[in-house]
Amino acid sequence: QVQLVESGGGLVQAGGSLRLSCAASGTISSINAIDWYRQAPGKQRELVAGNTSGDYAESVKGRFTISRDYGKKMVYLQMNSLKPEDTAVYYCHIIRMGISYWGKGTLVTVSS
Fold this sequence. Notes:
Elements lengths: L1 E6 L2 E4 L4 E9 L8 E5 L6 E4 L14 E6 L4 E6 L8 E9 L2 E4 L3 E6 L1
Parallel strand pairs: 2-10
Antiparallel strand pairs: 1-3, 3-7, 4-5, 4-8, 6-7, 8-9, 8-10
C-alpha cells in the first residue's frame, strides 16, 4: 500500500514563507516520483511542482522549490514570497502501478 501524509500548512501573511512536508511510506520505490498539486477554492486541481527538475506552475516559478530527503523519505515544498492567490489545499501525489495516490492535503491560507 501507499501512504502520503502532508503537513506544514497554516495561515501566513503575504510575503511570508512556509515549508510543506510529505511523508511517504508503503510500496514506493522512489520518492523522486512524488509531486505537489494544489486546489484553490472554486478552481481545478493543478500541478504546482512536478517530479522533474524545473517543472513548476508558471505562477510559482522562482518562489517555490521542491526538495527531497531520501533518508527520511520526505518530500518538501518550500514556498517563499507567498501571495493571497497561493491560498489552496496542497496535496502530494504519486503514481504507482498506474494508480494515482493522494494525501489528504494541507491547507495554506495567505492573507493580505
